[in-house]
């Protein structure tokens, strides 16, 4: 479902990086008659074809093949009688919307909804070909809500139109309904989307501080001005958004860059101060609203100049210490830390030799280093373009957070048990001796020494993929430079340097856990302060779990 939706957004969304003639744009809806000619109105950015035409299927297919910027909303009759033609049209690149048509596996046959946009102002389109509202609608409406469209067009039938109005009640001020049975011969209608001044909100979805500012701190101020400005949220882990951000930073000559940056035609806000950012945003909005009409109509982010040269210039301005420092900061990775702490503790609990634990820990750390280096050499773009990235990363974060929470509960339970019994044996995290023997016997049968190393390599690989979004504003231009200048020794050297310092925090955590458990002083202190040690370990697991849950749920 989500994969299909994102494909629709990518292929159908007509984002025009230019200024329209009027302060808004038009979408033409037509159907139940002859095929229209080319629109005379220059403000028309797209057409919505309701089908039911008085032409042959071949003539309709030919017209669609020669017409760009058109979305097809087939009628129930066409679904039944011309299904093969519709699939052929879809295969040629046109988007067909059928919001309630499911196959035998309860999956959408065509895309559940379509989007058309200009200057970040969006129209969402729904088309219901049956009389029954399917459960698919609820998930579709959640996806549409995230797009925050200016207008929703919903095509229904006589039997479901009332239910549709009820389901879309939260959008009633922006939704227009059409009933199939009431579409007249030669029907044609124009929907005009009034554009508002645009505020561009740049953030990283892998940055906890960014997510808090976006989801919790700034919404009240944007809600206050929701009828006067349009806010577009751009995640700069994606290269196209990062390029826009770089262009705007260059245009406004920004020196103090922050993880969240907000722009309009009137200026910018670069701040991570939760207490002051809304005051700055409000001033930016008021300055934007006070602009002349011609300045308001300018497309935000339309920056002249050679963007590639700007990024290269920024890359060439890096020093060894800047790159090393950025790598060190990016290496403070709670998921990687949690994984290696969990792995070392689990292997110790299961009774593996210290040499084996050391080998596996080093293998895991080197796997993280190599994977992140390879991502920097070009694979990052491929990985981040996959629609499965966000879903997969959230699942892994959730699983790891759950395991850490279980370990935290067991550790706290051990502390309570020790406080009550004053005994050091049979702790939950220690596992009963008989149970530990059985696990070891099972592992020896099921996993060879090589398989344990393979597991460590795969773990490092997966964790690195999940953390690939936290590249910051140092790693991204380096990646983009290396993608275009693969023979540049300086770029390759910087990538290696960055990743060496990126891996240092992980090595420190691993060696701290490994040698800390071996140190006689620390071991002696732990035995003398079992209650404190268990509570501290439980607290560490809780903190790491909360950090991962934040990434999984945001």
Assess the beta-strand content as a share of residues. 5-15%
Largest sheet descriptor: 5 strands, mixed
Sheet with most strands: strand arrangement:
4-3-2-1-9
How many structural domains are formed by the residues? 3
Radius of gyration equals 28 Å
Number of strands: 13
Class of secondary structure makeup: alpha/beta
Number of helical runs?
22
Look at the structure and give the mean pLDDT: 76
User: How many angstroms does the end-to-end distance come to?
Assistant: 20 Å
Which residues sit in consecutive blocks of at least 5 with pLDDT less than 50? Answer: 1-22, 379-389, 425-432, 442-448, 469-474, 483-487, 519-523
Shape: globular
Helical content stands at: 55-70%
Which labels suit this protein?
554 residues, alpha/beta, Glutaredoxin, five-stranded mixed β-sheet, four-stranded mixed β-sheet, globular, disordered N terminus
Structure description:
This protein is of the alpha/beta class and 554 residues long. It has 3 domains: 2-194, no CATH class; 198-304, Glutaredoxin (3-Layer(aba) Sandwich), CATH 3.40.30.10; 314-553, no CATH class. Helix content is 56%, strand content 13%. The chain is built from 22 helices and 13 strands. The protein has helices at 2-12, 57-65, 76-81, 83-91, 136-147, 161-167, 208-217, 219-224, 239-251, 277-289, 293-296, 307-316, 320-330, 334-349, 354-384, 388-421, 433-446, 449-466, 472-484, 489-518, 520-528, 530-553, and strands at 24-31, 44-49, 70-72, 95-96, 114-118, 121-127, 151-156, 175-179, 187-194, 198-203, 230-235, 261-264, 267-270. The strands form 3 sheets. A 5-stranded mixed sheet has the order 4-3-2-1-9. Strands 5-6-7-8 form a 4-stranded mixed sheet. Strand 7, helix 6 and strand 8 form a beta-alpha-beta unit. The relative contact order is 0.09.
